[in-house]
């Protein structure tokens, strides 16, 4: 099939590249000319394992194209996928300006029947509103189909090729069947539903996962007070198939471009129909407070932060991505700097994006975990990159002014710490050292 994918961000690019890899002809469109230029040169504008290789392969084989010219891409396509951002507005609602603009541009470029697939996460009722807008701008027939995206950054390609499910929301049975056919090579459960339910499935899924994280963080905080070990507790809970073991890692809380904005948006969606989503409001509040725990530990252990040096390991909101949007690191580094600490940061891939977003020249960029630890009074670990698991902690301790490690992701075990000589604190576990 011929596809145009509008937006080459974390979702649009991976979607376009994976569809081309299963044999469709795909044109990826972005209004950001620099991104398109980079892609044309066979380079990925984002860090996502395996993506660059797939971009090159499918470009060389002639199935994948990139352009800033939305009009021609839409003219040539039977299916147009909208994958532009829906960031958070100041009041917490999803900001729909990009999706509305993209829908307008698609409507005016249409030259015949098109199926418009909305992959962006949008509040319930938005697909219907988009359909009404497009209908007001074009004489050509079309259908709008909601196919919410569930990929995880860092494993986006695997998630796209092997999703747990594909949700297809549509008012038209024929359009839904066509989109089912588009996904056919992916052998997974495909669920056909209505537009509003599809939109809600996305928000409900993210809100549920965020709830699991905040729940285990509350249990972790309680474990600290009663002398239990949250890692053991989560393991024991996870054996119960009704609970499952994923999303039960206690730490500094969730971040990223989805959970924070999608939980806020769902609270707003509820508020708009006078429903007070109390549980979700608490989930958000617990998550906000969780970021303070690491900071407070540092203040306590260092007796204040003024003139102290703190190394920070890990800046991206999770490992294997360079995405720092709403990452706990932004807030924690901000608090450290505001408290008068000198902050030395290190992340394997997210340094550039982090510095751009933090925009504070006083932060000191390091090229390795040991450089960030050197002459520091403490180090705090905020992202569980694999390379941090393999550090020689004894050597790290020898480089530090004070051998203090605050582990915001519960990466290390008693065995790892054995003989390292570190003062070690983690989240919801007994003191190990
Ligand atoms: P992103 O910000 O990384 O990318 C959006 C891209 O769209 C940008 O490159 C931007 O330049 C481009 N764009 C905006 N308007 C355009 C227009 N009119 N024409 C052409 N290009 C345009 O966003 P993302 O992280 O890929 O997220 C996209 C959507 O998918 C959001 O609704 C998000 O909530 C949802 N989602 C994201 C993830 C994730 O892990 N990032 C997972 C599931 C769902």
From TrEMBL:
Pfam families: UDPG_MGDP_dh, UDPG_MGDP_dh_C, UDPG_MGDP_dh_N. Residues 311-414 form the UDP-glucose/GDP-mannose dehydrogenase C-terminal domain. GO terms for biological process: polysaccharide biosynthetic process; UDP-glucuronate biosynthetic process. The active site is at residue 258. This is UDP-glucose 6-dehydrogenase. Belongs to the UDP-glucose/GDP-mannose dehydrogenase family. One of its GO terms (molecular function) is NAD binding. It catalyses: UDP-alpha-D-glucose + 2 NAD(+) + H2O = UDP-alpha-D-glucuronate + 2 NADH + 3 H(+). InterPro entries: 6-PGluconate_DH-like_C_sf, NAD(P)-bd_dom_sf, UDP-Glc/GDP-Man, UDP-Glc/GDP-Man_DH_C, UDP-Glc/GDP-Man_DH_C_sf, UDP-Glc/GDP-Man_DH_dimer, UDP-Glc/GDP-Man_DH_N, UDPglc_DH_bac. The keyword Lyase does not apply. Substrate binds at residues 150-153, 202, 247-251, 255, 318. It comes from Xylanibacillus composti. It is an enzyme of class 1 (oxidoreductase).
């Amino acid at each position: 099939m011929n596809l145009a994918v509008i937006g080459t961000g974390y979702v649009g690019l991976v979607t376009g590249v994976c569809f081309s890899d299963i044999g469709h002809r795909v044109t990826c469109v972005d209004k950001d000319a620099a991104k398109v230029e980079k892609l044309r040169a066979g380079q990925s504008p984002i860090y996502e394992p395996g993506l660059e290789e797939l971009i090159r392969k499918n470009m060389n084989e002639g199935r994948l194209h990139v352009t800033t010219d939305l009009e021609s891409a839409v003219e040539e396509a039977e299916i147009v996928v909208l994958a532009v951002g829906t960031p958070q507005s100041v009041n917490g609602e999803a900001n729909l300006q990009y999706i509305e603009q993209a829908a307008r541009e698609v409507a005016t470029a249409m030259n015949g029947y098109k199926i418009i697939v909305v992959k962006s996460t949008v509040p319930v009722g938005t697909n219907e509103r988009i359909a009404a807008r497009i209908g007001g701008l074009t004489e050509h027939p079309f259908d709008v189909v909601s196919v919410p995206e569930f990929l995880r950054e860092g494993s986006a390609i695997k998630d796209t090729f092997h999703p747990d499910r594909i949700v297809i929301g549509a008012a038209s049975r024929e359009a839904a069947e066509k989109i089912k056919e588009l996904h056919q090579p992916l052998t997974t459960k495909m669920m056909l539903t209505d537009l509003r339910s599809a939109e809600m499935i996305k928000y409900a899924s993210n809100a549920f996962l965020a709830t699991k994280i905040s729940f285990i963080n509350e249990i972790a905080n309680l474990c600290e007070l009663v002398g239990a070990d949250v890692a053991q507790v989560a393991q024991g809970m996870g054996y119960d198939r009704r609970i499952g073991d994923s999303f039960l890692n206690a730490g500094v809380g969730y971040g990223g471009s989805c959970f924070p904005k999608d939980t806020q948006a769902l609270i707003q969606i509820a508020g708009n129909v006078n429903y007070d989503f109390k549980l979700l409001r608490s989930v958000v509040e617990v998550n906000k407070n969780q970021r303070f725990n690491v900071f407070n530990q540092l203040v306590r252990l260092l007796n204040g932060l003024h003139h102290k040096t703190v190394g920070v390991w890990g800046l991206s909101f999770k490992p294997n991505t360079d995405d720092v949007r709403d990452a706990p690191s932004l807030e924690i580094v901000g608090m450290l700097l505001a408290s008068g600490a000198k902050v030395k940061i290190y992340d394997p891939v997210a340094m550039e994006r982090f510095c751009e977003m933090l925009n504070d020249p006083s932060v000191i960029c390091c090229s390795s975990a040991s450089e960030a630890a050197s002459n520091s009074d403490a180090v705090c670990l905020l992202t569980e990159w694999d390379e941090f698991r393999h550090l020689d902690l004894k050597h790290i301790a020898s480089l530090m002014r004070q051998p203090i490690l605050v582990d915001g992701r519960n990466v290390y075990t008693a065995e790892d710490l054995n003989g390292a000589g570190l003062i070690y604190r983690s989240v919801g576990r007994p003191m190990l050292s």
